[in-house]
Write a structure and sequence with these properties.
Length: 201
């Protein structure tokens, strides 16, 4: 029996190259981070926040759907690369890239076989995300950035001092019960050494 596909697609080959795209490109990193690593961490954190929101605070949210969308939250960077935060949030760059993400999203969806587009297009298109899920993914994205900054500071890299303050400020500005729960319950563990983690201190 032959495969039902009509032609070859480079969609997932593009996604696999996220591992080659470095984040925090304008800053000296003690430990480099790529977009594939970041996407995995954001998916894990978004899933955790969604579970907390559902099971602790009684919100109607599907953690598995949140985690899946989070995996694709930076998928367009497979084509655009990662724009460093100081650059992409400058007024000139915001204007120049206002429609870029949507256009690249459409381009990537266009690479998919027709039979897969209905399932995958809503994963890539942020505008198609339910508001509650988008909020959780944004929280997880900020949390991932803050944990990266904290780790760099623990390694003695002062390059991330201002970034840590800015990200934490955004987190506090948009604090939610599930984020506070995560920070209070799981946050201290990120400050521990491996030996302390193994001992359960």
């Amino acid at each position: 029996m032959s495969s039902p596909h009509a032609s070859h697609s480079p969609f997932y080959a593009h996604l696999s190259r996220l591992r080659f795209i470095k984040r925090w490109g304008l800053m000296r990193n003690a430990v480099e981070e790529d977009v594939a690593q970041h996407s995995w961490e954001v998916a894990v954190l978004a899933h955790a926040l969604a579970v907390i929101a559902r099971d602790v605070f009684g919100q109607a949210v599907d953690p598995n759907a949140v985690a899946t969308r989070a995996l694709f939250h930076d998928a367009t960077e497979a084509i655009t690369g990662d724009l460093p935060t100081p650059v992409k949030y400058s007024p000139a760059m915001r204007h120049a890239t206002a429609n870029l993400e949507g256009e690249v999203c459409d381009e990537m969806v266009g690479l998919l076989p027709e039979g897969l587009k209905p399932a995958l297009a809503p994963m890539l298109d942020h505008h198609a995300w339910p508001e509650a899920e988008a909020r959780l993914i944004k929280q997880a994205d900020r949390l991932s950035a803050w944990l990266k900054c904290r780790a760099e500071l623990r390694y003695g890299n002062r390059e991330f001092e201002q970034a840590a303050e800015q990200v934490r400020g955004k987190m506090e500005e948009h604090m939610t019960p599930e984020m506070r729960y995560f920070l209070d319950t799981f946050g201290p563990g990120y400050e521990l050494t491996l030996d302390s983690l193994m001992k359960g201190d």
